[in-house]
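Exercise 7b. Backbone tokens:
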């Protein structure tokens, strides 16, 4: 939280609830790379926290902007549910800009209700996917109105197999890049103490490591272990299992790599895509993969 004033910020109850729910949005390595600049009650600027960038795996900040888009979507859902409309004003012209979006909340009697339990219960499922065919009507629903940006590749196609193979190869390359692995190590919270202190990053629970394995990691592992061959190979094996279990791939694309306005929408391209896709996928849980 940032403010231009030296005084203490006194949030209203609804403001706290809305920003809390917004903060439950997903982000790479769970870095939570957004900040909120307080202007006045119901008037904020959502920013891009450069101290939490991931230059090794996201050098152009593409995924950073996509995650900020999900933060904004959570914010809008939470605000609507409490009876507020959101007025968005795009400030950013690139993925690297600090100030991304100006937000003003206005009390409204027509704001749509949303089941915020979906926000609270969201999690990334990393294993035990079903490989059943996705029904055509379900695939069409996911891509509805966004066929220029969202594409479904079913598991019966050669393209699906190619993407699976390339995903494994891409992960092999990334796990054996020391800069990427060091970056990962910086964001893993092995111990309960670190998880409680930082309240961000990747915990054993979020990585679906439980039981004896989780106990060993929490008590005997540290950053240096992430750089070892056995840790890298174990993660590659997990990726192989993940890509062998699914109904298909959902590809999200954009016209270019920059956060430029798209059509009439006053929103960076990646944010706009995240916004529209999030509405479709909010009840759904999946593991995102990027190249």
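Sequence design result:
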């Amino acid at each position: 939280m940032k403010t231009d004033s030296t005084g203490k910020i006194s949030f209203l109850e609804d403001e706290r609830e809305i920003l809390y729910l917004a903060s439950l949005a997903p982000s790479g390595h769970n870095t939570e790379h957004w900040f909120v600049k307080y202007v006045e009650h119901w008037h904020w600027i959502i920013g891009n926290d450069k101290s939490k960038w991931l230059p090794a795996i996201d050098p152009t900040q593409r995924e950073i902007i996509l995650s900020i888009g999900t933060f904004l979507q959570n914010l809008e859902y939470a605000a609507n549910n409490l009876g507020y409309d959101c007025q968005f004003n795009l400030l950013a012209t690139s993925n690297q800009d600090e100030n991304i979006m100006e937000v003003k909340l206005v009390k409204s009697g027509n704001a749509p209700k949303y089941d915020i339990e979906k926000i609270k219960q969201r999690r990334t499922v990393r294993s035990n996917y079903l490989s059943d065919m996705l029904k055509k009507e379900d695939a069409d629903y996911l891509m509805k109105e966004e066929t220029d940006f969202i594409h479904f590749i079913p598991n019966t196609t050669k393209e699906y197999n190619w993407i699976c193979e390339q995903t494994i190869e891409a992960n092999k390359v990334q796990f054996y890049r020391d800069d990427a692995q060091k970056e990962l190590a910086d964001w893993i919270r092995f111990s309960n103490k670190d998880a409680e202190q930082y309240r961000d990053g990747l915990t054993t629970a979020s990585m679906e490591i439980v039981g004896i394995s989780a106990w060993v990691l929490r008590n005997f592992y540290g950053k240096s272990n992430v750089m070892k061959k056995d840790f890298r190979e174990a993660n590659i094996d997990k990726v192989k299992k993940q890509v062998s279990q699914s109904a298909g791939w959902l590809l999200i694309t954009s016209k270019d790599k920059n956060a430029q306005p798209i059509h009439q929408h006053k929103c960076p391209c990646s944010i706009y895509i995240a916004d529209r896709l999030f509405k479709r996928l909010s009840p759904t849980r999946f593991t995102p993969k990027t190249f």
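Instructor comment: Residues 259-266 have pLDDT under 50 and may be disordered. Residues 43 and 104 are 5 Å apart (CA to CA).
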